[in-house]
Amino acid sequence: ARSLISSGRLSIGSLLSFFLYQKPMSANLREIMYCYGETMSTVGVISKVLSYVDRTPKCKKEGGLAPEKLEGRIVFQNVTFSYPSAAADKPALKSVSLEVQPGKVTALVGLSGSGKSSCVSLLKRLYEPQEGLILLDGEPLHHYNQKYFHRKVALVSQNPVLFSGSLRYNIEYGLKDCSVEKVKEVAKKIDAHDFISEMEDGYDTDVGESGGKLAGGQKQCIAIVRALIREPRVIILDEATSRLDVNAEQAVLKEVLARGRTVLIVAHQLRIAENADHIVMLQDGSVQEEGTHEELMRKKGCYYRLKAELFSESG
User: Fold this and answer.
1) Could you tell me whether strands 139-140 and 93-100 are parallel, antiparallel, or unpaired per DSSP bridges?
2) What ranges do the domains of the chain cover?
3) Which among 2, 29, 151, 190 is most buried, taking Cβ atoms within 10 Å?
């Protein structure tokens, strides 16, 4: 630098400018290198997301059926199904045939792994059966328009998914022009309005991440209100009332049966199944018995033995 200055090729001002700009330039270079690393990490994540987005659905081509009136009669005809990751010789369901009648409560019962959840997954078209058909009002499920079908067939699970936001936001999610009066009307029918009103901000109360600020029973109530406000013809309750008290549970069942809805209950505990109009006993992926609670108890078959086993465990 001294020789450059003495020869006149570098001025003192230019040298001072160099030292003044060196520090911020170094910081900027470090920031660029950091951003580059973050960008490359993000590219990897985006590639993974896009690989899911670009996947071609394996389900049959969507139909166009969207009838104004839907009765809600469900029929499984010789349905056999294996999960993609399972061995072909170990199907989750084997030649299952059953019927779910409109205006009645049908309960699927059985031990864990008996095929109850598989029936629900197929009914919601999360998978397609390898053999047999599932009919809704006499039409195969894939004949229906997807949006119409999922609006008319609602599922409420034991551990419902709630989003960060208000109670009202979670109930109305995806609906257009849904008034708070309509939300309150449905909530009152299943005795959810009282506990919501007691909260600090009522229907505007924030539920927290994944509904973490709510108790288990409260989350189930919100999920049931969310399903009912869409006015489905078929509603599937997969242990959806397991954390409710008896009075709240009865209020829910009364409302879901209103307007002749088709109600399918997946019952891991037999208490709620006992009051069902029809019980289907599954074992090892097959239908073993069908009937009312009294009929199955008189048969003293696998339902009777399951009832006795669960009673002895609780005792």
Assistant:
1) unpaired
2) 2-53, 74-314
3) 190
Q: How big is the chain, counted in residues? A: 315
Give the mean pLDDT of the chain: 88
Alpha-carbon gap, residue 149 to 217, rounded angstroms: 28
List Cα–Cα distances, 68 to 39, 100, 135, 233, 244, in angstroms. Answer: 50, 21, 17, 11, 34
Task: Please name the helix (run of DSSP H) or strand (run of DSSP E) that holds residue 113, with its range, or none.
Answer: none
Quick check: 73 and 138 in contact, CB under 8 A? yes
pLDDT 10s digits, 232-276: 999 999 988 888 888 888 888 888 888 789 999 998 778 888 989
* Contact between residue 88 and residue 82 where contact means Cβ atoms under 8 Å apart: yes
Give the whole-angstrom CA distance, residue 159 versus residue 314. Answer: 23
194-to-184, 224, 242, 271 alpha-carbon distances in Å: 10, 15, 20, 26
Superfamily name and number for 74-314: P-loop containing nucleotide triphosphate hydrolases (3.40.50.300)
Beta strands in 54-175 (DSSP E): 74-81, 93-100, 105-109, 131-136, 139-140, 153-157
pTM passes above 0.85: no
The C-alpha atoms of residue 13 and residue 104 are separated, in whole angstroms, by 91
